[in-house]
Design brief:
Blueprint (H helix, E strand, L loop, with lengths): L1 H11 L9 H20 L2 H13 L8 H4 L2 H21 L6 H13 L6 H17 L8 H6 L4 H10 L4 H30 L6 H19 L16 H21 L5 H5 L11 H5 L1 H21 L6 H13 L6 H17 L7 H9 L4 H7 L1 H18 L10 H31 L1
Helix pairs in contact: 2-5, 3-5, 5-6, 6-16, 7-9, 7-10, 9-10, 10-11, 11-21, 12-15, 15-16, 16-18, 17-18, 17-19, 17-20, 18-20, 19-20, 20-21
């Protein structure tokens, strides 16, 4: 995929008159904005205390860093994680395109509820070792490495589960992270064929499978991890306003890159979004940024309208959706899935404000290709199934897979797409007979 991106980017010139650094600059600006938000929210002393608490505390689902260490520390942590990811992408000489935006912003988002620079490093190192063993450049696996940090809670949890001395437990935790990073590349290559690109969260699905296996091994050895629920309720209007201002800035920057034209932005809506759908290479970085801002604003508006909570996980999920709007999701294919989650919860036992349901709505962005390929009704069905399945899967791996929604989305795609394709094939056969 990396080779295809480079060839495509060179062929298209990354947009007329653009030098290819626009999204890199925007990503660095975003990290600096998170730093600024951190020091607006809290004092340096409190931020440092909060960062330390993130490192030494459990990170199992759902651990809201806004509650655990404070909003300022959470934003600072997100900035640090994002800058580390930007450094790795730049060091690997990978162009900043659609999957890059998805990888950067999912990491920034999850750094508000489960990831920190310490617990992601062993996983990144494990994938680097896999690349070295196969005599490949690390850049070939950079996205798997970055997405694979969704299993970061395993690293912290091992320290708490193991009965040995602290240095030994820490060494075992680091080894577990390295093993995770080493195993994810071959697993992710296989799972991509299972959902056929209809789930944007491929590594989320493979991480869920790996987490399930590892949790079973731990439980067989007498070590059991429990899910948690640390969640800030209510809504912070300064945070809501800040998100809207940020998305407006992204839209205006994209409009500037497009020289005031909306043609390429509207052209994104023609694409079904099935992976690999890199909107940056397809329509240009400006158009992708405008699409990202619209998706981000749509997510914030949805949570606000249903009376949801602007907790660390919800804010992180908004940033995740913002990133994946450069890599497969747009309003036309996301809205049906979002509607499906909302409609299902009118009949289910869950409220729209239930933490898991709020996250399911935003993470429904990963199933957008189903609506893009098979139509709005299929997207609604996908959203309904996702809303039901995601509430059952977290217990499978003791809260140690941050990408619970990614795992659920993979199951929905594997279950639903063959059924939809059979109807599509039947319809085509009828059309052929009528001719």
């Amino acid at each position: 995929m990396i080779k295809w991106m480079k060839e495509k980017g060179n062929r298209k010139g990354y947009g007329k008159g653009l030098n290819g650094n626009e999204l890199k600059r925007f990503s660095i600006f975003s990290a600096l904005a998170l730093f600024a938000a951190a020091f607006i929210c809290d004092s340096p002393e409190n931020i440092l205390r909060g960062l330390w608490r993130f490192v030494v505390s459990r990170d199992a689902l759902i651990t809201d860093y806004f509650v655990l260490g404070g909003q300022g520390a959470a934003f600072c942590n997100a900035a640090l994680v994002m800058l580390l990811c930007i450094f790795l992408v730049s060091r690997s000489k990978i162009p900043f395109t659609g999957p890059t935006m998805a990888a950067l912003f999912i990491n920034a988002g999850y750094a508000l509820w489960g990831k920190n620079p310490v617990n992601i490093l062993p996983i990144l190192f494990g994938t680097w070792l896999y690349a070295k063993l196969h005599r490949a450049h690390f850049g070939r696996y950079i996205y798997i490495a970055l997405f694979g940090t969704g299993l970061a809670p395993f690293v912290t949890e091992i320290v708490y589960l193991m009965p040995f001395s602290l240095p030994v437990d820490m060494a075992l935790a680091a080894a577990a992270g390295i093993v995770i990073g080493f195993l994810l590349p071959p697993l992710s290559a296989h799972t991509a064929s299972m959902h056929m690109g209809y789930s944007l969260f491929n590594v989320g699905f493979s991480a869920g499978l790996l987490a399930f296996v590892m949790v079973c091994v731990l439980e067989a050895l007498g070590m059991k991890s429990e899910t948690v629920l640390l969640w800030r309720t209510g809504r912070s209007m300064p945070l809501v306003i800040g998100l809207f201002v940020y998305f407006l800035a992204a839209f205006l920057y994209g409009l500037y890159l497009e020289k005031g034209r909306l043609k390429n932005f509207l052209g994104i809506f023609r694409h079904p979004g099935r992976a690999v759908a890199d909107f940056v290479l397809m329509e240009g970085p400006g158009a992708a940024l405008m699409n990202m801002s619209v998706i981000g604003a749509l997510c914030v508006s949805y949570i606000f309208l249903v009376g949801g909570d602007f907790s660390g996980p919800v804010t992180g999920a908004v940033l995740m959706a913002f990133g994946f709007a450069a890599f497969g999701a747009h309003p036309k294919n996301f809205l049906p899935v979002l509607a499906g989650v909302y409609l299902f919860n009118l009949a289910s036992r869950y409220e729209h404000g239930t933490p898991g349901i709020q996250l399911a709505a935003l993470f429904g962005v990963g199933l957008s290709p189903i609506a893009g390929q098979f139509g709005a009704l299929a997207g609604v069905a996908a959203g309904m199934l996702h809303s039901a399945i995601v509430m059952c899967t977290a217990e499978m791996y003791g809260g140690l897979n941050l990408y619970n929604n990614g795992f659920s989305a993979g199951i929905v795609a594997i279950f639903l797409v063959p059924v939809l394709e059979s109807f599509e094939k039947h319809r085509e056969m009828r059309r052929e007979k009528e001719k």
